[in-house]
Amino acid sequence: MLSRSAGLRTGLLLLPPMLWLGVAYLAALAALFVTSVWGQNDFTGDIERVWTWDNYRQLWDIPVYRTIAFRTVGIAALVTVVDALLAFPIALYMAKMASPRTRRLLVIAVLMPLWASYLVKAYAWRGMFSGGGLIDWLGSPFGLHSPGYGLVATTVTLAYLWLPYMILPVYAGLERVPDSLFEASGDLGAGALTTIRRVVLPMAFPAVVAGSIFTFSLTLGDYIAVTIVGGAGQLIGTVVYANVGSANNLPFAAAFATVPVVVMLVYLAAVRRTGALESL
Amino acid sequence: MIVDGRLKAVLRVLTGLVLLVVYVPLALVMVNSFNVDRTFTWPPSGLTFHWWNVAAHSSGARHALLVSIEVAILATAIALVLGTLAGLALRRTRFFGRNVVSLLIILPIALPGIVTGIALNNAFRTMLGLQLGFFTIVVAHATFCIVTVFNNVQARLQRLGPSFEQASADLGAGAFTTFRLITFPMLRSALLAGGLLAFGLSFDEIVVTTFTAGPQEQTLPIWIFQNLFRPNQAPIVNVVAAVLVLVSTVPIYLAQRLSGDVVSGASGAH
Per mean pLDDT, which of A45-59, A72-86, B211-225, B248-262 is the most reliable? Predict the structure, then answer.
């Protein structure tokens, strides 16, 4: 086939999706950043189309927003670590120890909650953490109480919500590791724990990083779970939502929404070197 | 395979514990839908079918469910068309900007939900002067659903290679005949899988939806979210939540059936 007609065909095929994404999405993103450097009239609440860095200056100068930004990133990191710790044993068991039949069942058992509604899962934890709820009941023989709605509940709920996104890449990553490596490690005299530490963990690392991209990004952008189980706790998402809705300060919301984007871009640039992006 | 009895036992216990933590909250939702009380107090003082009956007659929930299904069908249809076109365009041909195109397709789902939500909200309202409603939800959902179809189509095309289509062209079939008789049948199960994912993604989405729905239109997740904090509605929310947990097993079942299909589909093509 002539290369010119092939190029033409590619162009024609690409036109509709690119038009859609370009108009509906890229333009919207660009507009968002333009809006973030617009001002707002303090009295009328109307957006003033004048160039100003005030929104970003406010983000930095007003301590509460700085605190919220750091808290959000902190919770995202914590959720990622918790998920990695929970995902590793189950992924290792699925990939390298379970019989094929058990493995299939485990994959389904991990996938099933992924299809259960996000909202229902967050709501389920509202029930778990409520006063007199299941956690209180389970803890009462030991004199323990539910921590109630707050940042602890938010972290637990988010870690629960994103856990499958960590298990699946780690499982896939471990499955690719040939068994002969474990045998070689054993033959060279390493015990099971040494093999895990010196062979399995380094090989699983890119997969963990791949999973962390999901857990990190999803946590940064969440505001529903924190509204449901977070009590009075605020994250970037809740501030952005409040500023689009009730506070009606779209330029400020736009400026704050760029924080997770920048954090994600920095994070992606940092993890590029681990080769995690190829194993996504 | 690692064969160390003690390690295996430890990992088995840990796996069991994690799965327990994963399923206890979902079981709690199921039990709570039969709870006589309106609170989460454990253990429940009694069980009843009453709330299921009430929920079945809740017009708000039923209307929201209908809206959710309509949105998901339309968004999936748009995503199927656009995702397939993009997948076909990006095969084999190496051209400048190829990576840019795949990045652009992934971006709506890779960026945090509030960013996509607020960007679309801003574009619809401030830039285009549109009224938020059914139409804007569909546009928003279609935008982040394209990637699931695109990924499935691209993976399938890469795996099967161009030889069948080249043979078809050599035998004198035109581009459309080849697509109808060769490419589409090869893609069918990939399209089903991608479409299923897109439908699930749209049906469940709430973050972007809250920014693009406006005050009039309610999808099911938005209905749940708005009734979540109303003590009077709690029992009905419990029932809807329980139903959604049950419904979530359907795509798993379909995916299992599909993955069987993929094998027979591929062997059928040979």
Answer: A72-86
Neighbours of A22 (CB within 10 A): 12
**ipTM here:** 0.81
* Minimal Cβ distance to B245: which of A116, A130, A257: A116
Residues 6+ apart with CB under 8 A from A102: none
Work out the average pLDDT over B74-86: 94
Task: For tokens 């039949």, name the residue.
Answer: A101
Total domain count for chain B?
1
- pLDDT tens column, A148-185: 788 899 999 999 999 988 998 899 888 888 888 888 88
- The closest alpha carbon to A241, from B141, B209, B204, B228, belongs to B209
Nearest-5° Cα angle at B241, A231 to B213: 75
User: What is the pTM (predicted TM-score) of this model?
Assistant: 0.84
> Percentages helix, strand, coil for chain A, rounded to the nearest 5?
80, 5, 20
Chain A hits for B200, Cβ within 8 Å:
115
Cα–Cα separations (whole angstroms), residue A13 to B43, B104, B155, B190 = 59, 16, 18, 19
CATH of residue B126 = 1.10.3720.10
- Containing structural domain, residue B80: 63-269
Beta strands in chain A (DSSP E): 38-40, 47-51
Residue B75 falls inside a structural domain: yes
User: Is B262 a member of any domain?
Assistant: yes
CA distance A1 to B266: 27
| B113/A221 touch (CB, cutoff 8 Å), yes or no | yes
Which residue among B8, B32, B118 sits closest to A257, beta carbon to beta carbon?
Answer: B118
CATH number for region A58-279: 1.10.3720.10
In sequence order, what are the beta bridge partners of A75? none
Identify whether B133 is part of a domain. Answer: yes
User: Would the CB atoms of A117 and B93 count as touching at under 8 Å?
Assistant: no
- By CB atoms closer than 10 A (0-12, 13-18, 19+), residue A5 is exposed
B61-70 per-position pLDDT tens digit: 889 999 999 9
Instruction: Name the 3-class secondary structure at B92.
Output: coil
Confidence of residue A43 (pLDDT cuts 50, 70, 90): low
| Nearest alpha-carbon partner for B91 in B28, B25, B157 | B157
- Which residue from B15, B224, B245 is facing A93, i.e. has the nearest CB? B15
pLDDT, residue B233, reads: 81
Q: Is B200 within the bounds of a domain?
A: yes
A51 DSSP β-pair partners? A38
Using only C-alpha atoms, chain A has a radius of gyration, in whole angstroms, of: 23
What DSSP line would sit under B114-144, residue for residue? HHHHHHHHHIIIIIT-PPPSHHHHHHHHHHH
**Mean pLDDT comparison of B31-40, B130-139, B223-232, highest-scoring range:** B130-139
C-alpha B72/C-alpha B137 separation (Å) is 10
